[in-house]
Amino acid sequence: MANKDEVLKYVRTVAEQNTVTRAELIEAYDSASGIKGDVVLTKKLGVAEILYYIGGAVVFLGIMILIGQNWSTLGVVAKIMATLGSGIAAYVVGVLFNKDVRTEVAGSAFFLISALVMPIGLWVVFDEAGFDANSFGMQTFISGLLLAVFLLSYHVFKKNIFTLFGIIFATWMFFSITSFIVGGAPHFNDWKFYMYRILAVGVSYMLIGYSFSKTARVSLCWFLYGFGVLGFLGAALALGEWKPNQNVFWELIYPGLVFGALFISVHIKSNAFLTWGTIFLMAYILKITWEYFSTGLGWPLALVIAGLAMIGAGYMSFSLKKKYLSV
Amino acid sequence: MNNKYMNTGILKKNITLVIGISIPILMIIFVAISIYLPGFFVSPKFNFLYVSGDDYYYYDQYQYSVQNGELMKNEIKKPENRSYEPIKEVKLYVHDVAKNKSREITFEEARSLNLDSNVKSPDGFEIAYGSHSGSFLFSGGSDYGVRYLTGNNISKKLDLQLAGSSYYNNFRFIGWIK
Q1: Mean pLDDT in residue range B14-33
Q2: Using 50, 70 and 90 to split pLDDT, how confident is the model at B80?
Q3: Residue A241 — left, alpha, or beta (φ > 0 → left; ψ -120 to 50 → alpha)?
Q4: Exposed (0-12), middle (13-18) or buried (19+): which is B101, by Cβ within 10 Å?
Q5: Which of A216, A232, A293, B38 has the greatest number of beta carbons closer than 10 A?
Q6: How much is the CA Rg of chain B, to the nearest whole Å?
Q7: What is the mean pLDDT of residues A14-36?
Q8: How far apart are CA A322 and CA A61, in angstroms?
């Protein structure tokens, strides 16, 4: 592999010979770096930006309450206009605001309204068309449609809000399609299946979050790490079940998973891993104490031991945060 | 050649992203395989006899049971001083598991069958209610309108012929036909 000087020398040579244009070189660089012209929010949100998003969420709530209160009196066209129409209108306003740097962030708030209202709009359209919009087949179709729209929007506008909702719609599609495949089959459709799916989504979120941490999409890490580690540790704890139906494998492996999360929190400097790791360590201590020590030692003594262990977990968490995570 | 190196480079650089996206996709494939594949290798062999039409057992005229592998019909005695709804006609059906079709039979035909009244068939299948769709993350519980033949890691939806409504009381399993 050529070193940096050789590469730059070669670039100068091809530039002199006009065999490669400047635009082609930039395009090649960007496509390899994977952050092609991302116009994303890498800085922390300011008060104004937060108010924009809160405003967007309030507008969404207003639309929902308005529709909910007048549902029985609204005709088919009015229902569709109020839901899908609002979603599309908000999307168009977002596109128009996005063209001006001064209104760009406000545009994202309109994209947020659109992302929240569009699923309901599509549900109304298919429900009014006579389909069973609650069926998993229909939910797979709606979530797939929304995923396609938001991935395409991300490709055009390069905004994190499309990545965020792309992930949310992909998650919805994952749950819908797996439920659709299983159908009503009684041998498969128990709560463990849901737990394993949450476990898989949790791992997926954490890995995607880690890959984003090195790119301009770093601002999505809090969401992906937070929900990823919550889903993963929560599902793993639930899979351990409760005495006398406990699952020994999950109960034995769980401390390893929690301490793994705490170790990773130091490695990637993530408060989400540290916070959820500590909370689930405490939950595990309480669960194990209740299951195995409350009868032998007696519940009061078991509580004392669990409390001391929880204080230890809290102190460890505090120390790790102070030593490794504080800026 | 250069494109190949470029693609490999992008893949290596985004390996955590690729694995992160692959996990749910692989799980979908795994779920599909575990649902559809066993059905190609295992199929239930024993047909079963059931009774339908007794939405309200209280008003039935007869009670069916299996004794020594034979179907028995016992009349239900009612107190004479009480009035009842008109007695509903109940029907006997044999379900062909290979064709997933039911056909009505007479009591005399049913009496000639050799029955096993165990809940589980000799080849390990039993009849169970389906599950409701539920919503997003949560299961909706049992669906009393749909029944499955389940066992050996497969479930087959039963297309049952029912007399009257499809309410959950309107199906009573009697026995596996040996």
Answers
A1: 94
A2: low
A3: left
A4: middle
A5: A232
A6: 25
A7: 67
A8: 40
- The alpha carbon of residue B90 is apart from the nearest alpha carbon of chain A, in Å, by 28
Please tell me which residue, A175 or B11, carries the higher pLDDT value.
A175
What is the b/e burial string over A35-44, where b = at least 16 CB atoms within 10 angstroms of the residue's CB? eeebebbeee
Do A211 and B6 make contact, defined as CB atoms within 8 angstroms?
no
Give the tens place of pLDDT for each residue, A237-255: 999 998 888 899 999 999 9
Selected residue of B18, B28, B29, B148 to mutate for chain A interface (largest A Cβ count, 10 A): B28
| Alpha helical stretches, state H, chain A | 4-16, 22-33, 47-70, 76-80, 86-98, 104-128, 136-157, 160-182, 191-212, 221-239, 248-268, 271-288, 299-320
Interface ipTM above 0.90:
no
Q: Do A184 and B28 touch (CB under 8 A)?
A: no
> In chain B, what residues touch A170 (CB-CB under 8 Å)?
24
d(CA A53, CA B106): 70
- Distance between CA A94 and CA A86 in Å, rounded? 12
Strands (E), B39-167: 48-52, 62-67, 70-75, 91-96, 101-105, 115-116, 126-131, 142-151, 154-157
Residue linked to tokens 């999505």: A220
pTM: 0.78
Nearest to B139 among A176, A194, A201 (CB): A194
Q: What is the pLDDT of residues A95-146, one digit of tens each?
A: 999 888 888 888 888 999 999 999 999 999 999 999 988 888 999 999 999 9
Measured CA distances, B114 to B109, B118, B148, B177 (Å): 11, 13, 23, 6
- In chain A, the percentage of residues whose pLDDT exceeds 70 is 92
- Chain A closest-CA separation from residue B124 CA (Å): 13
